[in-house]
Amino acid sequence: MASITQDMRYRLSLIRYAEKYGVTKAAVKYKTNRQYVYRWKRRFDGSMDSLRDRSRRPHHHPNQHTPQEEKLISDMRRRNPDAGLVVFWVKLRQRGYSRSITGLYRFLKKQGIMAVHPPNPKYIPKPYEQMEYPGQRIQVDVKFVPSACLKNSRVIGKQFFQYTAIDEYSRWRFVEAFEEHSTYSSAQFVEHLVKAFPISIECIQTDNGSEFTNRFTSHRDKPTLLQKHLEAHGIKHKVIRPFTPRHNGKVERSHRKNNERFYATHLFYSFEDFAAQLKVYNRRDYNNFPMRPLGWKTPNEVLKDYLRSV
């Protein structure tokens, strides 16, 4: 409900005084002119709303759209209901429209015919494929060791790397330290992984890094040393979709946990020191840590339970 302003009360009091004592005395008392009194007397119809200020917006403008332009816009909007402002303006200009884009925007807004963009299609993630037994698929990735953990003058400025493999079924993890990440290091890591894992491995999944595949290099048709070793062991190599690290989510999450549980609290004074501490951490902590996806069992327990059942 519109509020009653002080000006409206003033005009009502002025009109009532003029009706009782005349227009001249009302103009003198309220310090205004007779024309003002007559104007509000004519407008007053007994309701307070008639004493409200009316809009001073002009009904016409010398630069307003012509009927021909309005028809052009209406016809074009009917044929292009979803076209955005810029696209719609360009289409109009191709048909002789000469107004600015801001003028077109004001007209569309006033007429209520702005484009209503349909919502973007909702992303539907691919259903996760549950593994049925250990070794069915193992995720492999490389982590750069934080430079803040290197505290000896002999190792400051160098880079160490953590190769990580996680079995998707049991979450059992195998890690190894390397001084370089290359296809040679990857091949050596796979050889050690095959020996350490108690069951034959069917598939190894990696990202598209050059240490794993030549997919995005100039030698895309040439297999890497890692792929040759996998083929020799009869292991399938699967690469994830480019720029989609969540497809290697288990190993990515383990790297995040490494930062919290290991790298945030440990210092390394040589490569041998780093390799020894990493091996101990993985054996004592990670593979013996209960996990919710495993029903609060440890990866070692899940792996042992499976081996007992077969």
Automatic annotation (TrEMBL):
<dbReference type="GO" id="GO:0015074">
    <property type="term" value="P:DNA integration"/>
</dbReference>
<dbReference type="InterPro" id="IPR036397">
    <property type="entry name" value="RNaseH_sf"/>
</dbReference>
<dbReference type="Pfam" id="PF13518">
    <property type="entry name" value="HTH_28"/>
</dbReference>
<dbReference type="GO" id="GO:0003676">
    <property type="term" value="F:nucleic acid binding"/>
</dbReference>
<protein>
    <submittedName>
        <fullName>Transposase</fullName>
    </submittedName>
</protein>
<dbReference type="InterPro" id="IPR009057">
    <property type="entry name" value="Homeodomain-like_sf"/>
</dbReference>
<dbReference type="InterPro" id="IPR001584">
    <property type="entry name" value="Integrase_cat-core"/>
</dbReference>
<feature type="domain" description="Integrase catalytic">
    <location>
        <begin position="130"/>
        <end position="307"/>
    </location>
</feature>
<dbReference type="InterPro" id="IPR055247">
    <property type="entry name" value="InsJ-like_HTH"/>
</dbReference>
<feature type="compositionally biased region" description="Basic residues">
    <location>
        <begin position="54"/>
        <end position="63"/>
    </location>
</feature>
<dbReference type="Pfam" id="PF00665">
    <property type="entry name" value="rve"/>
</dbReference>
<feature type="region of interest" description="Disordered">
    <location>
        <begin position="49"/>
        <end position="71"/>
    </location>
</feature>
<dbReference type="InterPro" id="IPR012337">
    <property type="entry name" value="RNaseH-like_sf"/>
</dbReference>
